[in-house]
Amino acid sequence: MISLGALIYDIINGGFGYVAFEYKNPPSEFTSTPVSQLTREELLVVLQENLSSGAYKKLDNEQKMETRSQADLYILFLERLVQIDTKETWSLTDSLLKSDEIRARVAEKYPDAELEFRLWLTPQFLSTPMSSKAEFAGVRTAILGSLWLVGIALLFALPIGVGASIYLQEYAPHNWFTNIIQTNINNLAGVPSIVYGMLGLAVFVRTFEALTSGAAFGITDSNGRTVLSAGLTMGILVLPLIIINAQEAIKAVPDSLRQAAFGVGATRWQTVWHHVLPNALPGILTGSILAISRALGETAPLIVVGASTFITVDPEGVFSKFTALPIQIYNWTTRPQTEFHSIAASAIIVLLVLLLSLNATAIFLRNRYQRRW
Amino acid sequence: MEENIKSQPMEPQIFRQFDLKKKFRIGEFLIQGSLFLTGILSIFVTLAIVYELGKEALLFFVDPDVTLVKFFTTTRWQPGIGQYGIVALVSATLTTSFIAILISLPLGLASAIYLSEYASPKARGILKPVLEILAGIPTVVYGYFALLFVTPILKLFFSGNQLQTYNMLSAGLVMGIMILPLIASMSEDSLSAVPRALREGAYAMGATKLETSTQVVLPAALSGIGAAVIIGISRAVGETMIVAVAAGAGPNFSFNPLDAAETMTGHIARISGGDLSYNTIDYTSLFAIALMLFLVTLVLNLISQWVVNKFREQYE
Fold first, then answer.
1. Rounded-to-integer distance, Cα B25 and Cα B28, Å
2. Quick check: A164 and B46 CB within 8 A?
3. In angstroms, what CA-CA distances link B302 with A204, A223, B53, B162?
4. Residue B107 or A96, more confident
5. Could you tell me the sign of the dihedral formed by the alpha carbons of B98, B99, B103, B104, in that order?
6. Which residues in chain B are closer than 8 Å to A269, comparing Cβ atoms?
7. What pLDDT, on a 0 to 100 scale, did the predictor assign at position B249?
8. Which of A202, A341, A359 has its CB closest to that of B52?
9. What is the interface pTM, i.e. ipTM, of the complex?
């Protein structure tokens, strides 16, 4: 309880607070009107005039400048031209308790700097892609990458997992071979996740590179380190979890139901499909949600399989390079600059909110549909 | 059918229609077959793990430079320049895991006893979900917590540079917090499974609540608790993100928890995170480490299952 409290305090403490920053080139150098009132077209002109043509072309290649939104251009303007330089950041507690001290320190050390109390977690943080500057970095690509991962993992693991659990509960004879399968599944659930990462690296990234990189389908701009490889790796990782949970759910369906179905002449599959599965469904769903939240939070296998840490374009398909929320958190946490710790904390809040809402759904489903026989 | 009837004209036809033999249905057969395939897929996964790890690890061990003696006895790990002493990584893994168990065993056991023997239903209703939440927090978050909260606090207790910024102590402590819910909930399960009659018998002999808990209920649940501890150790050995963030980068043969050192998992995470070229000694050495990890955790998990099956006390 205390540790949970400390953990939450620490994350919130890191996520908000004072920031001292300087403009390298004040906005007034570029335009006479206040920046926030510039229209899209005006911003475009300013950018075109002040950026070197090479840099402009590179941006244009990533996404056509004309098609970018006003907010997008505004960020580019701040990032490329004004070039905000973060001097120092403070945590929430410091900001609240020692605000005078901080003001004095900033005035003395960085006379040109502005001091701002900032919530790092903003709507902009959610909607912008990764950036090398903490001010402009967001988690959109990471969230999308995480969703792709989880989607692929579930598509792969759910049918196989449920199939295996049906086989083990309804069909398998009681013999040594079934025992081996069962023990094996229990053991797989305890294998360290990084070992799954190594398996994914060897099998999906290397051995099946032609398939997972999309080369077999005429896509050539990536190697095997794609969201597909990572998703399949995650799928194998959560497979034992799904099987064990689905087995529990199927076990909870009483035998009298099966016997009644057999009694009116149903075949085994008819019994399973029409009677056992519908009754076990809430339990299976709960298990899959738990599997999703496991897949969302796993980091180690993604590092091994090759998640990129710096990606500014959204994943567009299964053959895209990708990044994921936990990878961003890891990357930002391990940087020495404190402003990155602040955005790491913000990303953690995003991740925890996602996980908590998933778990709440699981608990809700369990309570709503759980039947007592 | 017709020919059958002709060849046995004497048999009463009515029984023919109620043949009780199981009819062969192609659909059912196909379904059962594919379900069976999904069932044995787990075996394939295990085989794939062993095969792939084994294949690459073999490439590592057949290198004339690498000998098993060197691998297990020397204390420097730097495959790039021909130093293959895995002990440097194992020492860190052992140290962090030991600290983690040191923290989580007493605390987990205490909270399990509290939850199953002392807590009111209301307190249980609050505490159990808290444990479940703790268990669901991603390990990279624990890593952040270790590096940016626990380490600065620990620094207050040690003077000078005794405690390095990256150190095994904070990684181990936080790892203990991570496996605490696992040990607590598994132990609580086996404590609750001890029948009431045993407790009432103890009370009837005049035992206090504490005596009942520690001298009657606890020994009765010992097999489950033992299994929980072994699973906890296995988790600690395989845990990656906390040590990768907080314990330090760079193999270092040391059992001093104040030092920075790299565990087996942390090393794999760091090396494979960069641009690793295939078919180098660095690449294959990672598989050798992963194979060791897999075998160690596999053995621990098997022991834990065996303990549960062998020593479980059957109560009515």
1. 5
2. no
3. 28, 38, 20, 40
4. B107
5. negative
6. 27-28, 31-32
7. 78
8. A202
9. 0.84
- pTM for this entry: 0.80
Nearest to A344 among B144, B149, B294 (CB): B144
Q: How far apart are CA B165 and CA B256, in angstroms?
A: 14
Using the Cα atoms of residue A121, residue A122, residue A126 and residue A131 in order, give the sign of their dihedral: negative
Please indicate whether, in this complex, the C-beta atoms of B53 and A195 are within 8 angstroms of each other. Answer: yes
Share of chain A above pLDDT 70, in %: 56
At residue A87, the 3 state secondary structure works out as strand
For residues B290-316, give the mean pLDDT. Answer: 82
Structural contact between residues A220 and A321, judged by C-beta atoms closer than 8 angstroms:
no
Instruction: Verify whether the Cβ–Cβ distance B45 to A303 is below 8 Å.
Output: no
Would you call A202 and B56 a contact, using CB atoms and an 8 Å cutoff?
A: yes
Name the band, by pLDDT with cuts 50, 70 and 90, for residue A127: low
How far is the C-alpha of A27 from the C-alpha of A10, rounded, in Å?
Answer: 35
Chain segment A265-309, per-residue pLDDT in tens? 888 888 998 989 988 888 888 888 888 888 888 888 888 887 766
CA distances from B154 to A11, B39, B98, B147, B159 (A): 18, 49, 18, 10, 10
Statement: residue B310 has pLDDT above 70: yes
Nearest neighbour of B245 by CB, restricted to A181, A184, A333? A333
B279 versus A249: the higher-pLDDT residue is: A249
Asked if residue A195 lies in contact with residue B290, where contact means CB atoms within 8 angstroms, the answer is: yes
Contact list, B28 vs chain A (CB under 8 Å): 267-269
Q: Looking at CA atoms only, how far is residue B201 from chain A in angstroms?
A: 32
* Least Cα separation, residue A65 to chain B (angstroms): 32
DSSP, collapsed to helix, strand or coil, labels residue A84 as: strand
A-chain residues near B36 (CB < 8 A): 167, 171
- How far off is chain A from B7, nearest CA to CA, in Å? 31
- What pLDDT, on the 0 to 100 scale, is given for residue A367? 77
d(CA B253, CA A192): 23
Residue B271, φ and ψ in degrees, nearest 5: -65, -45
Tell me the shortest Cα–Cα distance from A361 to chain B, in angstroms: 14
Spatial CA neighbour of B316 closest among B186, B187, B227, B193: B193
Using alpha carbons, list the distances in angstroms from residue A316 to A141, A144, A156, A319. Answer: 10, 9, 19, 8
Nearest Cβ partner of A300 from B46, B241, B287?
A: B241
What is the residue type of A261? A
A92 pLDDT band, cuts 50/70/90, is low
When comparing pLDDT for A82 and A256, which is higher? A256
Given a contact cutoff of 8 angstroms between Cβ atoms, the answer to whether A80 and A65 are in contact is no
Residue B137, min C-alpha distance to chain A (Å):
7
Mutate which of B24, B241, B242 to test chain A, going by most A C-beta atoms within 10 A? B241
Which amino acid appears at position B246 of this protein?
A: A
Long-range contacts of residues B269-277, Cβ cutoff 8 Å, at least 24 apart = B269/A194, B269/A300, B269/A303, B269/A304, B269/B240, B269/B241, B269/B244, B270/B244, B272/A197, B272/A198, B272/A201, B272/A303, B272/A304, B272/A306, B273/A303, B273/A304
Is there a contact between A321 and A214 (Cβ–Cβ < 8 Å)? no
Please give the DSSP secondary-structure letter assigned to residue B214.
I
Q: How many residues does chain B have?
A: 316
- Closest residue of B to A167, CA-based? B35
Give CA–CA dist B279/A19, Å, rounded.
47
Question: Which DSSP category does A272 fall into?
Answer: I
